[in-house]
Every structure is written in structure tokens, then in C-alpha cells.
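**Backbone description:**
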Amino acid sequence: MKSKIHEIQNTTNNTMSKKIVLALVAVFTLIACNKEVNEDANVHITGDVKGLSQGKLYLQRIQDSTLVILDSISINGDSKFESHIKLESPEMLYLFLDRGQTNSIDNNLPFFAEPGNIKIETTLNHFFADAKISGSKNHDLWKKFDSINRKFINKNLSLMAKRFKNNLRPNQKTTDSIENEYQKLLKRKYRYTAHFALTHANKEIAPYLALSEIADINTPYLDTIQKSMTPEVAKSKYGKMLNEYVKSRKSLDAK
């Protein structure tokens, strides 16, 4: 009888031991998996959307002319958030705020992400306008460029309003004047952008601006920017894209 009891106890102990071992294996596997994910990420984003108590944030990138989601973050009570992703090289990303039932055009925040720690602080009421982003040198440069570029954008909007008004009661002299102003504005914008890209050819923002802002500029300007890129920038996502684009432009120019 005692032998039978010992046998049952041994069987029970063995079963318990196996369960404990399996549980420990599962825990260590989970830890290992989490560690692997954390080690794989090279961009660590932390932030706070003050005033946001419930909603969802989407971290997006442009891929094949379409916005695709890299990460989604649910906000429920705590306005602070974090995201850990891997980027092969610095890249323009977009933090999209899903306000739920509240519609707003102020819901998309572009920022130039790069490996390291990036901090994003903003508010629910002025998601774009109140944004303060730190930790990315490329983003600092993009903000500097954008502050001047917005003056070109505003001037162009003013010209568009003049053009619309003139179209209601066409006047050739006014039409020619508006077109002349527009061409001068375009040249100034292109020169400023090309100069900015050349000045910062050691950063990924250089090929990004060449592709996103002045892609239709004369090929020699693009060629100069391409040749000015440092080897590291030339190997980046936008550097490779600019290399291919200049190559295709030269091919078309030769025809």
C-alpha cells in the first residue's frame, strides 16, 4: 500500500516537475523573444499627447506612394505613449491621431526619424502646431528648412488666389504678371532648396529634399546634390532613391 502511495506521489511529483519546467521554459522563451525584439529596434520613440485620454495613434511611413502602418498605439487614460521600431536609415515618418468620432484636419504629424531616442510632445487641441520633437538631427534641419519653405507656400497660395480672381474676369496683362511672379517664386524656392541640400549633404535630409521638393529641377542640380552626398548618406534609403532617380533622368536627357 505504501509502495503504491509512493508511486502515486512520485508520478504526481514528476508531473508537477514537468509542468514547472515547461512553465519556466515558456517564461524564458517569452523573455528571450521580447529581448530579441527590443534589441532589433533601433528607434525608440516616447511621447505625450496632453489632453488625449482615449484614442489611437498610428506610426506610418510612405511605401510605394501609400501610407502603411509601422505601429499602432492605444491610448486609454494615459496620454503618454512609446514605440520601438527598426529603420535601416533615417526616414520621414508620420504620427497619425485617430480622434474617434471627432473629425479634424489637424491629425497628422510628420517627423524625420533616425536611430536613437526621439521624444514627441504635443497636445490634443493642436496636434500639429504644438508639436515639439527632439532627438533627431535630421528633423531639426527639416524644421529649419520648413520655416522658410512655408513662406514660399504662403506666397504661392496668394498667387493662386489672384489667379482665381483673374479667371473670373480674364485680363491678359494680369495673367502675364501673375505667371511672371510665379516663375520668379519657383526659381527662388528651387535655389534655396538646392542650396540647403548641398549645405547639409552629410545628412539624409539632402536627398529627401531633392526628391520631395525639387524633383523636376534641371538634372545638373540634382547631379550636384547626388555627388555631394557622403558615402553613408548615399547608402541610405533616400540616397539610393536619388541615385536611381538621377540615373533615370540622365537616361531620359540623353534621348
In short: The longest helix spans residues 2-40.
